[in-house]
Every structure is written in structure tokens, then in C-alpha cells.
């Protein structure tokens, strides 16, 4: 019986393992597909697939950073009709040949990221009738002519991030009207011409971080009304008009972090009733209208960290009090009084208040629903047990001015599974250190605390 099973396995897997290119590993991936993986690097010259099984469905070629491949490409794939996924990265490929992928009718994924490709042309992709995902990130692409991807009519995802593209030519997306995800981040585009998007009106996700954008033509949003995720972070946007996003009725995630916006007006998000995540971090926001979030009835996560607002208007978070779960306020100079007013009736699970200049935390400030509280890098020296909600599971008080914590606080923290307390001036005399030592003996999460005083125990 055992012998028959062994013979069956040999007959099943034998051909796969017998035909495997040198420097590569052949195996079945987690989807049960015949896969070839070449990850050691150091491959120089034309791509050689000698001894690779014709049944191969997945091919992955990459290299470590200190020993990248130096591949030149030739049309070697035409006989591998079963290939569904090709990933050739970190291989310094300079260009793609004409009809290079001809005959790969089953190919779904093509990843040529981290190479030296400078200008893909339409004939490079002839024959890839069923390709769904194309990755060309981290190459040296400086230009994409009109219709570059016109043979990829089933394409759903196109990622050309961190290249050298300075302009998107009209009709660049000709014939790929089924595209759902477009990633352009890291190209110095400076502007997005709405005409470019006339061929991809079904887009669901658009990412254009770090593209040097100073403004957005609203007509682009009118063309892309099906967007559910929009990322315009780390650009140079200085203002958002009151009806900026009005055509985007289906938006669920919006990232505007890392810009230079100074104010959020009352009707800016009036049509974004489906929005769940809003990131406004690292701007220059000093004022947010009380009604800025009035129609965000499904908002669960709001990031306002590292801005310049100190005195938000009363009732700012009231419209989202019933749905908001995560709130980031890091890096804003906020008082306890302001926090108490801002968090009134808000039932959040996670609150981030690192680097807010807090010198104290009073009772009845934090919601009773809170599970995660970040108070790192403030100036807090005292805390009572009444400050901490019963629901708390994670607490970060690192980088403050605590000398010690009382027995009542430590008792309450017994149920907190994630606790960070380093970089405080802990006083290691008997009355201060006993509760800490007792807890440290039971939990690895707070080991490594060092004494700051008295002098004889400093660093201990």
C-alpha cells in the first residue's frame, strides 16, 4: 500500500521536479499551481528557461539587492502556454522585445517592477488578451505613448509607480476601459489632465501620491464618478473647495495627508455619505468648520494628526459620534479641556494623542468604549486609575515624565495586554518601584525599564 502511494506521488510530481532550471526551485504554490522560483540572483545575460517544464504556471525571478540579475529579454515564453503569472523583478531588464509575450493566453499577472525599462510600447504586450494585473513600478519609464496598453483589454490593475513620467499623454489608456485600479504615485506629473481619464471611467481606485500636484481639475472627478478610493497624499495641494469632491458619491476612502491645506470648509464632504476612512494628517489645518463632517454618516476612521489646530469648534465630531471608531490627533497642541469638549459623546475604540503637549489627563476625558490609547511623548507625570476606561486593552505612556505609578493604577493595568512605559524618569526608591517590579515580574511587555533616580540606581 505504501509503495503504491509512493509510486503515485512520484508519477504526479516527478516530471515537475525533474525539469527545473538551474538556480531555481520548483514546487506547488498555495493554489496548487506548478511554480518555478529563482531568487538567488547573479543571473547574467539572456533569460534561459532550459529545463523548465511546459506545465509551469507560475514563474518568479528576483534577486537580493546586493546581487541583482542582469537579464536581457528574448521571446522565450511562446511555448509555455500554461503560464498564469510571471514576476521578473530586480533583474535590470532594459527593454521588452516585440511580441515578447505572444501566445500566453492564460497569463493573468505580469510583474516587471524594479528593472531598467525606459519606454514600454504597445507591441510589447501583444498576445496578452487575458492579462488582469500589470506592474511596472520602480523602472525608468519616462514616456508612455498613446495606446501603450491597447492590447490589454481585460486589464483590471495597472501600477506604474515611482518612474520618471512627467506627463500622461491623451489616450494613454485607450482600449483598457475595464481598468479598476490605477497607481501613479511617485511620478512628477505636476497635474492630472482630465482628458487622460476619458477611457477609464470605471476606475474604482486612483493613487497619485508624491506626484507634485498643486491643484486638481474638478472635471477629473466628474469623469471618475465611480471611485471608491482616492489617494492624493504627499502633494502640494493648498486648498479644497467647498464642492471639490461632490461628484464622488461612492467614495469610501480618501487620503489627503501630507499636503498644505489650511482649512476644511463646511460642505467639503457633503456628498461623501459612504466615506469610511478620511486622512487629513500632516497638513497645515488651523480651522475645521463645525459642519465639515456633517454628512459623513459611515465614517469609522479619521486622521487629523500633525496639523495646527488647537481649538476645534464645539460639536465638530457630533455627526460621526455614532460610527467613528479610530481617531488620530497626534502632533496637535491640545489641552485637556479641549479634548473633553471634542470627545464628548464620541464612542471610539482607538485614540492617538502622541506629541500633543499634554501635561495632565483628567477624569471623564476618555470615552468608556476606548480599547487603544496612545499618550506617548507628552509631559504627563501623574495618572489616576479613574482616567483609564475599563475597556482598555492597549496603553502607551512612553516618553513622558512619570516617576512611578500607584497600586490602584497598576491594578487596573493588569488587564491591559499591550503596555509601553519606556523612556520615563522612573524613580527606583522603594515606594515607587514596588508596583512596577511586581508587574514586570509577570509581564514581558514592560521589561527593560531603567531607573532615572536616585543617582545610585540610575540606569539600573
From TrEMBL:
PROSITE patterns: LRR. InterPro entries: Dev_Immune_Receptor, Leu-rich_rpt, Leu-rich_rpt_typical-subtyp, LRR_dom_sf. Keywords: Leucine-rich repeat, Repeat, Signal. Residues 1-18 form the signal peptide. It comes from the Eukaryota. Pfam families: LRR_1 (PF00560), LRR_8 (PF13855). Coiled coil: none annotated. This is Insulin-like growth factor-binding protein complex acid labile subunit. The lineage of its organism: Eukaryota, Metazoa, Ecdysozoa, Arthropoda, Hexapoda.
Amino acid at each position: 500500500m505504501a509503495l503504491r502511494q509512493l509510486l503515485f506521488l512520484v508519477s504526479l510530481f516527478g516530471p515537475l521536479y525533474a525539469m527545473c532550471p538551474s538556480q531555481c526551485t520548483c514546487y506547488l504554490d498555495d493554489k496548487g499551481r506548478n511554480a518555478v522560483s529563482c531568487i538567488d540572483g547573479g543571473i547574467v545575460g539572456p533569460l534561459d528557461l532550459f529545463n523548465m517544464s511546459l506545465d509551469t504556471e507560475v514563474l518568479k525571478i528576483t534577486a537580493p539587492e546586493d546581487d541583482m540579475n542582469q537579464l536581457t529579454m528574448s521571446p522565450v515564453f511562446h511555448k509555455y502556454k500554461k503560464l498564469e503569472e510571471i514576476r521578473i523583478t530586480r533583474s535590470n531588464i532594459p527593454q521588452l522585445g516585440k511580441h515578447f509575450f505572444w501566445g500566453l493566453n492564460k497569463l493573468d499577472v505580469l510583474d516587471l517592477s524594479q528593472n531598467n525599462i525606459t519606454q514600454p510600447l504597445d507591441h510589447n504586450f501583444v498576445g496578452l488578451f487575458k492579462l488582469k494585473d500589470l506592474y511596472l513600478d520602480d523602472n525608468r519609464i519616462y514616456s508612455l505613448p498613446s495606446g501603450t496598453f491597447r492590447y490589454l483589454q481585460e486589464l483590471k490593475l495597472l501600477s506604474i509607480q515611482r518612474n520618471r513620467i512627467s506627463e500622461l499623454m491623451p489616450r494613454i489608456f485607450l482600449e483598457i476601459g475595464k481598468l479598476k485600479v490605477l497607481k501613479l504615485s511617485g511620478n512628477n506629473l505636476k497635474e492630472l489632465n482630465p482628458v487622460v481619464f476619458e477611457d477609464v471611467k470605471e476606475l474604482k481606485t486612483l493613487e497619485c501620491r508624491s506626484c507634485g500636484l498643486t491643484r486638481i481639475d474638478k472635471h477629473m472627478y466628474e469623469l471618475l464618478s465611480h471611485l471608491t478610493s482616492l489617494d492624493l497624499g504627499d502633494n502640494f495641494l493648498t486648498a479644497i473647495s467647498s464642492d471639490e469632491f461632490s461628484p464622488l458619491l461612492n467614495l469610501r476612502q480618501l487620503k489627503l495627508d501630507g499636503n498644505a491645506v489650511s482649512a476644511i470648509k463646511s460642505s467639503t464632504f457633503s456628498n461623501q455619505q459612504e466615506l469610511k476612512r478620511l486622512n487629513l494628517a500632516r497638513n497645515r489645518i488651523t480651522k475645521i468648520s463645525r459642519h465639515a463632517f456633517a454628512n459623513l454618516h459611515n465614517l469609522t476612521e479619521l486622521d487629523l494628526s500633525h496639523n495646527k489646530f488647537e481649538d476645534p469648534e464645539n460639536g465638530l465630531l457630533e455627526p460621526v459620534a455614532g460610527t467613528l471608531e479610530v481617531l488620530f490627533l497626534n502632533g496637535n497642541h491640545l489641552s485637556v479641556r479641549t479634548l473633553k469638549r471634542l470627545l464628548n459623546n464620541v464612542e471610539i475604540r482607538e485614540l492617538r494623542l502622541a506629541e500633543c503637549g499634554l501635561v495632565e489627563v483628567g477624569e471623564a476625558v476618555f470615552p468608556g468604549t476606548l480599547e487603544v490609547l496612545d499618550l506617548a511623548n507628552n509631559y504627563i507625570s501623574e495618572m489616576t486609575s479613574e482616567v483609564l476606561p475599563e475597556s482598555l486593552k492597549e496603553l502607551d505612556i512612553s516618553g513622558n515624565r512619570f516617576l512611578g505609578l500607584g497600586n490602584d493604577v497598576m491594578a487596573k493595568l493588569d488587564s491591559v495586554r499591550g503596555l509601553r512605559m519606556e523612556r520615563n524618569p522612573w524613580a527606583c526608591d522603594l515606594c515607587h518601584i514596588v508596583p512596577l517590579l511586581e508587574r514586570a515580574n509577570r509581564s514581558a511587555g514592560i521589561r527593560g525599564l531603567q531607573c532615572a533616580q536616585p543617582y545610585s540606581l540610575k540606569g539600573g
